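Lecture 7 notes. Example A: sequence first, then its structure tokens.
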Amino acid sequence: MKADKIILGVLGGVAVGALLGVLYAPEKGDKTRRKLMDKSNDYADELKDKLDVLLGSISDKYEKIWKEGESLVSEGKSKYQDVKNDAENFMDEGKAKVENAKSDFRNS
């Protein structure tokens, strides 16, 4: 993001400089206004292109993070299910041992 801000600042400075240069140029008003409009359109198009690239980059990063998040959630669910199954098996084994111990105690 830092580089993007620098680029936008430089473009803004160039636009202001060009505007001042055109305004103080010794030409007729029609020519000056035409040049001003042409430069303005050029800079607007350039700025739009830069913003499109920036938004595309942000969108790509968002999609990547979203997919990684989905993967982590899926992995977390899988691990949770594994732990839950292990705990259930452990409980079942414990119950069986308790029942065996009760049965052994009654038979002795």
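Example B, a different protein, same format:
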Amino acid sequence: MKPFIREYDNDLKVKNDVMELKGQGVMPKDIYVLSHDDERTNRVADNAGANTIGLNEIGLGEAVGNLFSKKGDELRSKLTEVGFSDLEAAAYEEKMDQGKILLIVTDHERVSAWK
């Protein structure tokens, strides 16, 4: 099943929604933040107590490959590794090009009540 995803312009809104999700029982390990800027991604994830899509989610081979990829390729790869199609990943990567930050939740049962 595909993860839940929501787009944001505001980092504080992401943090508030992460807190709300955790309050509803979604485990931090199931909540991811992703943006075009690694520094922004890490800052928002750290402030909100969420994860970034890293080695555990994409595997060593993909992570090594990403070292030599362009940023857009790396982001699309991360999105496909957590369950999005190539077409969806490309569309979301384009949103990140426009400054959006993505909140991704892999706990389908708990997030369904939040939508």
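Note on Example B: Residues 11-23 form the longest helix (13 residues). The CA atoms of residues 35 and 101 lie 5 Å apart.
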